[in-house]
Amino acid sequence: MERGTDIARAAAAIRRGGLVAFPTETVYGLGADASRGDAVARVFAAKGRPTGHPLIVHLAADAQLDDWALEVPDAARRLAAAAWPGPLTMILKRGPRVAPATTGGADTVGLRVPAHPMAQALLSAFRGGIAAPSANRFGAVSPTTADHVATDLGEAVDYLLEGGACTVGVESTIVDLSRGRAVLLRPGGMPREAIEAITGPLASADLGAPAAPGTLASHYAPRAQVIAVAPEAVPREVAAARGRVAVLAPASAVLRWPQLSAITRTLPDDAAGMARELYAALRDLDADGVDVVIAALPPAAGLGEAVGDRLLRAAGPRRNET
Ligand code: TXA
Ligand code: MG
Question: Which helix (H) or strand (E) holds 77?
Answer without folding.
Answer: helix 74-83
